[in-house]
Amino acid sequence: MNPKTIKILLFFLFVLNLNLQAQNLFDKPHSLVFTKYLFDSRQYKFASIELEKLVFFDSKNDSLKARLIESYRLSGFHEKGILRTKQMFVDIASIPQKPTIEFAKLLLSDKRFSETKILLESNKHLSNIYKIKFGTELNLLTANWTDVNLMIEKYADSVKVISKYRMVVTEALAFKRKRPWLAASLSAIIPGTGKIYTTYWKDGLFTFAGIGISAWQAYDGFSTDGIKSVYGWIFGGVAAVLYFSNIYGAAKSARKYNLDNEKKLIHKAELIMGNY
């Protein structure tokens, strides 16, 4: 064998060795290590790309599928994660427990409450402990405080994780809601008092002053020029519009007060819940 042939052969062996090493870098063990690094460094978007490759080559691995769903949730690609989960598991009732746990978290993160409820009710592999946990959190995020309280009282000893919501539920049940009909009635009797009742003091005082000034101007116009007073009719019309708007606005402010406080309580629950 001449030297030139030997050199060519050695060159091809060298290239083949590099190719084998490159393939080895992208085998499953190395990909799993790389995926862990991406999760640890919070590069969830890139982790999802790597996991898609792993799931493609190992389509029966439920742990990888669960990790993939988690990566979509943590990267904020909820819609894509939900769609991908439904592609991997056509029948939600048959999804194994690990992917179901991540799918439930993903649905709650995206506020897909009706879908979460269906998943919890239909899935055959999710344990009762997880069904109670996610059921409690579903009721929290939909402000069903009475149901949450009943679940805590019933299951807190066996599912200790839900006991952490007790303080929020206690605060929610103690919260005194404002009644729209009462706010409207108060404003009908004394303009502005309905908004004061719902803690919007400035709005209430401005409303009272606006209606009072308009009514006084209308009275002054009619007193001076009688029933034909254009001035009186203009301000009388303004006073009437403000008066009826004040009644409607008082009822609306009561609903707003209740909704704002409900959102605050749900936000407290979300902070305790963590990254959903």
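^ that was protein a. below is b, sequence first then the tokens
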Amino acid sequence: MEMPQSRSPHRMVAAVPLYFEAQMRVSILIVTFNSREVIKECIESLLSQTHKDVEILLYDNASSDDTVEIIKSSYGNRVRIVEGRYNRGFGYGLNRLAEIASGEVLASLNPDTITDKEWISSAISHFEQSDVGMVAPKILFRDRPDTIDSTGHLIYPDGLNRGRGHNKKDGSAFSSPNEVAFPSGSAGFYRRDLYLKLGGIDESLFLFGDDTDIGLKFQLSGYRCIYEPSSIVYHNYSSSTGRYSDLKAYFVERNRIHILLKYFPAHLIPLSIFHTIKRFLFHNYSAISGRGNTAEYLKEGSVFRLYTLMLIAYSDVLLDIKDVMKKRNEIKKTIDKNRIGRLLREFRISAREITLTE
């Protein structure tokens, strides 16, 4: 695959003609699971978009509530629904929708979001630039609309990632378009042809880390991600799994090792152990000081349970190691893993920020 030329993340992003936006079709992809409480607000906001050439596609992961019935009765053929027979995870659902989508751009969106009416039109003009493969909107908390959830993601040297500006007040620091590593999975835009060519999301991840997986595929194939501050989404953060649940702790740790082993150059994998130890030391400080992620988790969990989950995550990676290494060997043929070093220099997050910011 021919790689577009890399550019500085600090350069100004030029405006592009409005006719480009008007000619572009966007497929909005939503994966639901027991989303009856939030899905109508989400869809209503999409029907109010100023950009009208859109289709709304929804994959339901075998909800046990009446999510599907609500959508069918309320919106009819305005929403195309694919019903899964059982829950196969976020990536599986998104990949199936991407395959049947008709748009040039895919817009991934969580059901617990509300979009500003300019969400699409503000973002898609960046695709006029041939080396832009992804666009990250500004994601704010629904219950605190002056506070950032994500303005695109940053990456830590052991494969973990987090939203840039998470839990900070919105302001001038987040008011200009610039480059980031990749969008949050809760809301992001991707070129459909590239998404399919790169194989979509690794479906074995099931939950969490999916945005890192597809984001790295784009980046390591030479395509940039632009953050667009006037494309705004309001998000009910981790509403389906809980902000500090056992489920989240397990999948985040398991999947970041999958990503590390699949995408990082061999010489960076041993070094990642140092960064993981450093991160764990900050987690311990979080537990002692009462600040940050671990402190919040311990309000309902325990240190013993948390480290047990970590051991289970590592054990499961060992059980999957043959499959992970097979994927690594396949990926080597299509992407340039040496670009990871550039990503870690330009879009790096610190251990302190990734652990002590709630």
